Every structure is written in structure tokens, then in C-alpha cells.
Automatic annotation (TrEMBL):
Protein name per the record: Uncharacterized protein
Phylogenetic classification of the source organism: Eukaryota, Viridiplantae, Streptophyta, Embryophyta, Tracheophyta
Source species of the chain: Pistacia integerrima
Length: 240
């Protein structure tokens, strides 16, 4: 029953995040245009990073209200592998993945239904822009860096939550820019699956290979590398 409750929470949480994530680009455009600064990339980057910071902090509190819900299968797997989800099992983590994917679909459908026609052209999900293997490697590497930065910043970074989230938002923006010519990028299989479902590409080898398998490999490697960089203290060391 606890696993089912967690899965439902993840589905709702992911739908909300995917909706807001798609909205962020449009809000960035609206805000920058209102000040006549739509052609200044540093300003747009600052606005987008600030919005991401606000969204993430808000979702951290919402996630706690939903019992530790997650909206990204990659970060869920990375946190579990790194030993940060001691109250979860591999089976419970795996059960939550389909719920997150379903939430991704719901979030995309909601934003497409609610968005005014003049902005719908700006709603685009991740898609492969290079050959299959290059895209798979790129998405895997980007997810590795994404998950590693999350682990390092949130576990070993500054204690101030706002500063933590801002640093993570900035690092994510850099990864998005770096991967924009390859896969989008997504770094979130649930988000990618939602867009693929809308475009009837959710059951393709490209979807699973590029946006599920390789990100999961990257997430696991990020957790292992984090454990290598910051080995857990043994009981003997703690007593000393």
C-alpha cells in the first residue's frame, strides 16, 4: 500500500513539474519581452535560472507534503544507488517509474490544453538532433553530470537551501545549453516520455535507448562516482 501511495504521489508531482517546466520558457520570453530585453541572452538566462530556482524550492516543499515524491526517474535512481533513500527498495523505486511516466503525459497534455494559441509554438519537447548512438551517449553523459551536480550540491554544497537550488539551476542551465544540439536535452525520462507520447513516438527504440536506458546508466554512474569522491564514514571513524 505504501508503494502504491508513493507512486500516486509521484504521478501527481511529475505532472505538476512537467507542466511548470514547459511553462518556464514562455514565462522567460514574456518577462524579458516586457522589459525589451528579449535579445539579451544573459538577461534571459538570469530570468530562466531565477524561475527554475523558485519552482524547485516550491516543489521541494510540495514533495515533502506528498511524502517524498519525485518527478525525475534519473534522480530517483541516482539517489537510491548513492544510498540516500534508505527507506526505499529497488522494487519500490522501479514501481514508481511508470507512475512518473504517466505523470509526464498528464503534465504535457495539461499544458497543451491550457496554453493560449499564440504561445503553443514555443512548446517543444526534447528530440534527437544527431545520430542514434551520438544522442544516446550525449544524453547519458549529460544525465551523469546532472545527477552528480545534484548530489554534490545538495549533499556537500552550501547549507543555505536557496543558494543550493540556485547553483543547481545554474549548472542545469549550462547542461541544457551544452546538450541543445544533441537531444534537447531531457535528463528526465518522464518528461521525454510525455512529449514522445503526445507525438506518438513513445514506443520506439530511440525513446528507450536515448531517453531511458542511457540516462539510467548515467544516473547510476553518477551515484557511484559520488560515493567514490565522498566515501561514507564507517562506524569506527564516527566513534573516533
Amino acid at each position: 500500500m505504501g508503494v502504491i501511495k508513493a507512486a500516486i504521489g509521484d504521478a501527481v508531482f511529475t505532472a505538476m513539474w512537467v507542466f511548470c517546466s514547459a511553462l518556464r520558457g514562455i514565462l522567460t520570453r514574456i518577462i524579458s519581452t516586457s522589459f525589451g530585453l528579449q535579445d539579451f541572452f544573459p538577461v534571459k538566462l538570469f530570468i530562466s535560472t531565477t524561475l527554475a530556482t523558485i519552482f524547485i524550492i516550491t516543489f521541494i516543499f510540495i514533495g515533502k507534503l506528498l511524502g517524498g515524491a519525485s518527478f525525475n526517474p534519473s534522480t530517483s535512481l541516482s539517489s537510491y544507488t548513492a544510498g540516500l533513500k534508505s527507506d526505499s527498495s529497488l522494487i519500490s523505486v522501479a514501481v514508481r517509474f511508470p507512475a512518473q511516466a504517466a505523470g509526464g503525459i498528464a503534465g504535457i497534455k495539461a499544458i497543451l490544453q491550457m496554453m493560449p494559441a499564440e504561445y503553443k509554438g514555443m512548446l517543444k519537447g526534447p528530440f534527437l538532433k544527431v545520430d542514434l548512438h551520438s544522442g544516446a551517449i550525449a544524453e547519458g553523459v549529460l544525465t551523469f553530470l546532472f545527477c552528480l551536480s545534484l548530489l554534490v550540491i545538495m549533499q556537500k554544497g552550501p547549507r543555505n537551501l536557496i543558494l543550493q537550488v540556485w547553483l543547481f539551476s545554474l549548472s542545469t542551465a549550462g547542461l541544457v545549453l551544452a546538450g541543445s544540439g544533441y537531444t534537447g536535452p531531457s535528463m528526465n525520462p518522464a518528461n521525454a516520455f510525455g512529449w514522445a507520447y503526445i507525438n506518438n513516438k513513445h514506443n520506439t527504440w530511440e525513446m528507450f535507448y536515448v531517453y531511458w536506458i542511457c540516462p539510467f546508466i548515467g544516473a547510476i554512474l553518477a551515484a557511484w562516482f559520488f560515493q567514490f569522491l565522498f566515501p561514507a564514514k564507517t562506524n569506527k571513524q564516527k566513534k573516533a
